[in-house]
Amino acid sequence: xxxxxxxxxxxxxxxxxxxxxxxxxxxxxxxxxxxxxxxxxxxxxxxxxxxxxxxxxxxxxxxxxxxxxxxxxxxxxxxxxxxxxxxxxxxxxxxxxxxxxxxxxxxxxxxxxxxxxxxxxxxxxxxxxxxxxxxx
Length: 136
Ligand code: THU
Known about the structure:
With about 140 residues, the chain is of the alpha+beta class. It has four helices and five strands; from the N terminus they run H-E-E-H-E-H-E-E-H. Strands 2-1-3-4-5 form a five-stranded mixed β-sheet. The longest helix has 12 residues. It is globular and about 45 Å long. The structure holds tetrahydrodeoxyuridine (THU). The site of tetrahydrodeoxyuridine has 13 residues, from strand 1 and helix 2.
């Protein structure tokens, strides 16, 4: 699947966002090695800290469906009522969650960049990281 196709699915996921507190809606589309795509949106909470980002919603949904191998994730985000054309990079917590399941040398994060897309390897987004290797 192309980066642009995956971004289109992320836009569909963004439409499902529950974000009454920030007014900022985010959508993600996670392509698994199985070929399946899992969508995620941000889901907020009146107590704020229980809120979940779109990327983690996609990952947790996929993992709960039995997926363990992932190829890339597309992410789009913007204020309510605005089209998500500017890049919306994943927060640090989501980068750490991606690192738990993905090879940072291979897994890529695809962002919208105007009419185009921009792709980063996970290792570029979370260098010098803490992983399960540290616990050995
Ligand atoms: N958000 C995401 O869903 N993903 C990110 O990577 C950055 C932030 C959400 C969290 C919150 O619901 C809203 O965007 C504003 O921070």
